[in-house]
């Protein structure tokens, strides 16, 4: 028998969810099988119909390394001021490349998957998170090259070095995720967000000690500006990679600032806050995704 209007109005609807609403990043763990499919799709199609295939994962960092080494190391003679400059440079480049690729791809991820966003419901956070994970997959071959070179020069896989590397990559990966959520959601409504991201990425290489040492910055800027520089998550991530791979090979030649670990934990807190802010903005704009796409 059909329910009357009164009976229907009194029906308990607590078990129903608002369509298109989830629990944010927490949903990514519940939908991890779909996350794996997205990652697999992106990694398998990235170099489809490409002659070199996965070799392209090495070409870009190799080209960057050669150019920066010649310009900064040879022409500007930075190699004389930084011992084992080649390893110092490469360990910083692969961290910045991971951040740049993850952040850029996460920003475009919703627009690139507009057909899925419009047609079916799934946690939309899956797309930027998958983009960052794919960037991490592309980062691994470069990290393997760094690891082999470090081992040749006498690096030992001690827990403290491994811990520094893991912490560094976590900070950079979370920073890319938080910014990707923020700008990825804005990019749905305002496509010029991608252009703003390109400006950020252009500055990122120079805003962290990849091509130079932190001592050069400390000698030129006041203490308060140096503190801001140090709590930059990219600076923390790059310096942790230097601490993990380059510093042991140079026999401790890399003197750290007195407040190094304090600024690293501050940078970590800033990164976590960035993820929370990015998620909040993402959730605010999410109801308009299908309409704007």
TrEMBL record:
It is a multi-pass membrane protein. Coiled coil: none annotated. The keyword Plastid does not apply. Pfam families: ABC2_membrane. Residues 52-285 form the ABC transmembrane type-2 domain. InterPro entries: ABC2_TM, ABC2_TM_bact-type. The chain crosses the membrane at residues 58-79, 85-106, 126-155, 161-184, 196-217, 260-282. It comes from the Bacteria. Keywords: Cell inner membrane, Cell membrane, Membrane, Transmembrane, Transmembrane helix, Transport. It is found in: Cell inner membrane; Cell membrane. Belongs to the ABC-2 integral membrane protein family. PANTHER family: INNER MEMBRANE TRANSPORT PERMEASE, TRANSPORT PERMEASE PROTEIN. This is Transport permease protein. It comes from Leucobacter muris.
